[in-house]
Amino acid sequence: xAAYVEDRRTHSMARMYxxxxxxxxxxxxPLTDKFILTDLVTHANPHDPQSPPIRSSFKGDIxxxxxxxxxxxxxGGPKILDDVVANVTNAIVFRKFNFHQTxxxxxxxxxxxxxxxxxSHVITPPRDFARDFDQVLGVQIEDHQFTDDELRQGLLVxxxxxxxxxxxxxxxxxxxxxxxxxxxxxxxxxxxxxxxxKAGTQFYFETDDLEPPRxxxxxxx
Length: 221
Fold this sequence. Notes:
single chain, 221 residues, mainly beta, 2 domains, six-stranded antiparallel barrel, three-stranded antiparallel β-sheet, 9 strands, 6% helix, 33% strand, disordered C terminus
């Protein structure tokens, strides 16, 4: 952690750090065994909802910037730490693609703690001629406060009347009104709350992973 904090201090312009899992089936280290993402949220005992997940720790390398080099909007960065153990303590949002889903409006998840809040765009499967996007922004909300428990689950923020498209995404320093779906933990129960948001730094923006499928000849669909 000290090395990571020092790297952030000496490279203050870096907007993101990437974590690349290490997969090595030949060694005897269980933290480098192959796994799938659903292992992080699937109970080891399917008959016991209180049982731990199949997998909660794994090893990887930390990069300053993206750990891949082919992305249009993010450049590959140098590796600064290797053999780091990641311990997953909370999955804020875990959802599978619904290939029949379309978003009628721009949607984000709000997460973080106290005054360190972030917006993460709700991504959907790519469709013919329509590219979706992945985006993470810092954000400030001055007129409302949310509990850590609410933020741990990710609060859905919608922007009615604003089309879900790359051109209509939230921009840095933009001030906008959103509707947040407040949880049932509050005394007044679940409801929608209008809040004023001011976007800060865009930490991540990516479209290459959500390119529409390409047809390679033929007339069948």
